[in-house]
Amino acid sequence: MVGASQTALPAAVPAIVTAGDTRAAKAVYGESKVFLPLDGRPLVVHLVLTLQDCPEVSEVWVVGNRDRLEDAFAPREIRDAVRKPLYLVPQGRNLLENAWGTYRRVVARDPENGRDPRPDEMDLQVLYVSGDIPFATAQEISAFVRSCRALPECDYAFGYVREEALAGFLSNGPEDTGIEVAYFNLRDGRVRQNNLHFARPARIGNRDRINDMYEHRHQRQFWHMGALAWKVFFSRASGPMILIFYGMMHLAGLADRWKLRRLADLLRGWVTLRRNEEVIGRLLGARFCFVATEAGGCALDVDTDQEYDAVRAHFGPWREAQRARAEALYGPLPQDPRPAESQAEA
């Protein structure tokens, strides 16, 4: 464990940061994304320090290459900035092993060995966060957790943002470097996943399908989409309907990228967030819902060399702009409800 021990905040949840570099994880410039340096610190360190300011987060568990993680968090100034318990967990073979294996360690309160939850622990909630989101703000993460906690009938909440939330990361001209991301085109609008997940993992009946969705997630690579669609077609959980929704949504995205906006609008009219919730819920064997955030920073991850170049070029201004946007949208962070003497001990 890295960092001082502290009493968990009321209604706070453990955060699991996925920082693995196996199988479907993409390398950038030949490097594991979470260890790419920005302003002298790896991406994963920036995120963990952001989580220190989220009152809804009680502790942080980071799963990945543990030797490299220990080196990343070794500097004294970083250790001093970590106020919440921080556990570093060795990675498994894929996202599912990392997510479920770390959750079992959270249940056991043991970073070395986990166990399955007992019947009275089935509703234990955790926040999952991708380790490569340099513009995440504590306000956006806090708002997401509060929104999820207000949905008692949801076992797995998947975060998203609308297109306008990411306008600040676009290029300002031919001489400028910016980032233009892919969106899911729905009747509700153009949306993008925000790398935040809130779940009762023990209540998800078909956890293996989450790994399938992750390994075929890249919207710009059509063969990935087709592989997943073909796989879920044979699922007993409304496979044909999933295939239709998935195909329509991604064809709309393809038309949108080709600037065929009228065709994109026609195609996306068949697919809504609500219908996706129903179908994904059946696919996963859980009560599933989408939860929106507005700031946008959590939706910008680093997947390519070009995106990393743009992030490095604009890191300072983009980070300050995102912090200002989050403050304007959500206001100041909620105050730590613990007594002052408790905070001083932490």
Q: Biggest sheet: strands, sense, closure?
A: 8 strands, mixed
> Which architecture name of the largest domain does CATH use?
Alpha-Beta Complex
CATH superfamily of the largest domain: Spore Coat Polysaccharide Biosynthesis Protein SpsA, Chain A
Gross morphology: globular
- Pick out the low-confidence regions: 3-10, 216-226, 337-346
The overall average pLDDT, rounded, is: 85
Note the run of SSEs as H and E: EEEEEHEHHEHEHEEEHHHHHEHH
CATH C-level of the largest domain = Alpha Beta
Tally of contiguous helical segments? 12
Which percent range describes the beta-strand content?
A: 15-25%
Structural account:
- This protein starts with 12 loop residues before the first strand and ends with a helix.
- It is of the alpha/beta class and 346 residues long.
- It has 2 domains: 13-204 and 286-345, Spore Coat Polysaccharide Biosynthesis Protein SpsA, Chain A; 208-285.
- The chain is globular.
- The protein contains 12 helices and 12 strands.
- α7 runs antiparallel to α8 (239-257), α8 (239-257) packs antiparallel against α9 and α8 packs across α10 (273-284).
- Mean pLDDT is 85; it is low at 3-10, 216-226 and 337-346.
Layout: helices, strands, pairs:
Elements: E1 13-19, E2 27-28, E3 31-32, E4 37-38, E5 41-42, H1 43-51, E6 57-64, H2 66-72, H3 76-81, E7 86-90, H4 95-108, E8 126-130, H5 138-149, E9 156-162, E10 184-186, E11 189-199, H6 208-215, H7 222-233, H8 239-257, H9 261-268, H10 273-284, E12 288-292, H11 305-330, H12 340-345
Parallel strand pairs: 1-6, 1-8, 6-7, 9-12
Antiparallel strand pairs: 2-3, 4-5, 8-11, 9-11, 10-11
